[in-house]
Amino acid sequence: MINLRRFTKFTLAGLTSLLLLSGCSLTPTVALQPVSVQSASDAKAWELKGKLLIRTNGDKVSANLFWLNTPDNAELRLTSMLGTTVLLLTQNRDGATLEVDGKSYSDPSPQRLLDGLSGFTLPIDALPYWITGQPMAGDEVEYDALNRPKTIISADGLWSISISSWQTQSGASVPRTLDLKHASASIKLQTNEWQALASAHGSKGAQ
């Protein structure tokens, strides 16, 4: 099991045995290009760059975040401030692969893979929705004066998501800072760049 204390040590040490940010990136099966959308829900694919801070059981770890999300493939990468990859999760229709500490693990379910190998909970299935300001079916939502989600309580009641600021990216209003709280962990996420993507061969919603 990968606990947060060891994960923090890896981040600070900048392990050179792990994959570098410039290597082994996911290549989408379809060529993608930047597009402008009216709402984040209109984006069939997107990429995000930001920062992540995870606290659990008295430990904390911060990392740079890169996330590519498409209908067929996904890549979630956490890197240290030195640019060294400390965690890489890739997913396609055949399942998910997690690379960490120089080792590779696979499972049909990315959520089960993370739950089984990490000492903290990361809601990998729901996070793509919450990170773009979209509640999932069954979530309890409190809206702000502009009718944007301000607080989201997950359908199972385990997660509380607070969106404290918004920004305009790719023509859409998306969260800039989020705080996610769970009994086992709290996560602070800051989005520096969010880009909607579409097929380079004709893209609905592109402007």
The CATH architecture can be given as Clam
What is the total tally of β strands?
Answer: 12
Over all CA atoms, what is the radius of gyration? 17 Å
Output the CATH homologous superfamily: Lipoprotein localisation LolA/LolB/LppX
Q: Using the alpha-carbon principal axes, give the shape.
A: globular
Strand content: over 45%
State the CATH class.
Mainly Beta
Number of helices: 3
Straight-line N-to-C gap: 46 Å
Helix content: 10-25%
Strand-pairing-aware structural class: mainly beta
Uncertain ranges: 1-27, 203-207
The largest sheet is: 12 strands, antiparallel
Which fold name is given in CATH as the topology? outer membrane lipoprotein receptor (LolB), chain A
Number of domain modules: 1
The H-and-E topology, N to C, reads as HEEEEEEEHHEEEEE
Average pLDDT works out at: 82
